Amino acid sequence: MTQKHCILIGAPVDCGKRRRGCLMGPDAYRTAGIAEAITALGHTVTDIGNLTPKDVTVAAPKNPLVYQLAENVGWTHTLMEAAIDAAAKGMPIFMGGDHALAAGTVAGMAAHAQAQDRPFFALWLDAHSDIHTPDTTDSGNLHGTPVGYVTGRSGFDAYPPLPVRVDPANICMIGLRSVDAAEHAMLDDGDVTLVDMRTIDEQGISAPLGAFLDRVAAVNGMLHVSLDVDFLDPSVAPAVGTTVPGGATVREGHLVMEMLSDSGLVSSLDLVELNPFLDDRGKTASLMVDLTASLLGRRVFDRPTRSFTS
C-alpha cells in the first residue's frame, strides 16, 4: 500500500447531543495506540492535538428544542478550516467527538476536492442517516444533522456558508437501522444510496460497497469515510450513547475497511461517537483503532490478539 502521511486531529465535540462523554474520545484513541498502529504499517503520523470551537454568536434557533447551537456552529467553523488545511498535507483522521463534527469535516473535505478538481464522495457508516436539519429535529440534538447541512438543506442559516454542496447522489449510507419518518421523507426525495441491515443480511456487505467504490473510482473521486461507533453492533462496541441492536459484526467492519484499503480511494476519515465513559475496559476504542489499521493496510491475518481479562 502507498505510504500515507496521516494527520490526527482531536475533535472533542460533545455538544451534538445531551449525553456527555464524547469529549474524551480523542484521548481514548491515543491511549488505545492509534498512532502506533498507523506507524507500524509504514505510514507517518502527525498529531496536532485537540482543537477548540470558534467563539461565535448566533440568533436563537427557530426550533426551541435545538441544543447548543452556537457551540455546534463554532465547531463547524473550526473543523472546516482544519480539514482544508490538513488535506493539503496528508490524510486527515478526525478523532471525535460526536457526529456533529462531520458538518465541518465533510464540508472542508468537499472544498478540498473541488480545489483539486475532483468529484467528492462520502461513505456514511452509521445506524442513522443524520439528515435532519435544525428545523426538523424533534430531539434537538445536532449530531443528527450533518448530512442535512452538507447537502444544502434549508435551516442552517446560523452555520457558515457551504463552500460546496455535496451531491446526495455521491453519498452512500451503510448500516442503517434507525431512521425516523421525517428522515425517510427526506431520503425518499433524494438520491442517497441506502444500504440498511436487511440489505446486508440478504446480499452481504461487500456487494453494495463494491458497487459504490466502483462509481467513485470511475470518476477519480475523493472519498471521505465517516465511521460512527453505532455502525457496529453494541455487543462488540458498547461505548456509544445511541446503541441500536443488529449492527455490523467485527468481521463485516474489517471487511469494509479492507475493501476501502484495496480501493486506494480514501482521502479522510472521521471516527465518531466514541463515549469512553460507556466503554468496557477500552474494548470499543481498541476496535475502532483496529478498524483504522485495516483501512490503512493491515490484512485479516495480521490482526493482533487482544486480552481484556487483566
Written description of the protein model:
With 310 residues, the protein is of the alpha/beta class. The protein has a single domain, classed as Ureohydrolase domain (Arginase, Chain A, 3-Layer(aba) Sandwich), CATH 3.40.800.10. Helices cover 34% and strands 16% of the residues. The protein contains ten helices and eight strands. It has helices at 25-31, 34-39, 69-87, 102-115, 146-150, 181-188, 197-203, 206-218, 250-263, 283-295; strands at 5-11, 44-50, 91-96, 120-125, 171-176, 193-196, 222-228, 266-272. The protein has an eight-stranded parallel sheet, with helices on both faces. Helix 3 packs parallel to helix 4 (102-115), helix 8 runs parallel beside helix 9 and helix 9 (250-263) packs parallel to helix 10. The chain is globular and about 50 Å long. The chain starts with a strand and ends in a 15-residue tail after the last helix. The model has no long low-confidence stretch (mean pLDDT 96).
What is the total domain count? 1
Residue-averaged pLDDT, rounded? Answer: 96
First-last Cα distance: 35 Å
Please provide the ordered H/E string of secondary-structure elements. Answer: EHHEHEHEHEHEHHEHEH
Summed up, the helix count is 10
Content of β-strand: 15-25%
CATH topology: Arginase, Chain A
Radius of gyration equals 18 Å
Shape: globular
Q: Tell me the total number of β-strands.
A: 8
State the fourth-level CATH superfamily: Ureohydrolase domain
Oligomer: single chain
- Do you know the CATH architecture? 3-Layer(aba) Sandwich
Low-confidence stretches: none
Largest sheet: 8 strands, parallel
Q: What is the level 1 CATH name?
A: Alpha Beta
Task: State the secondary-structure class.
Answer: alpha/beta
Kindly report the spatial arrangement of strands forming the biggest sheet. 2-1-3-8-7-4-5-6
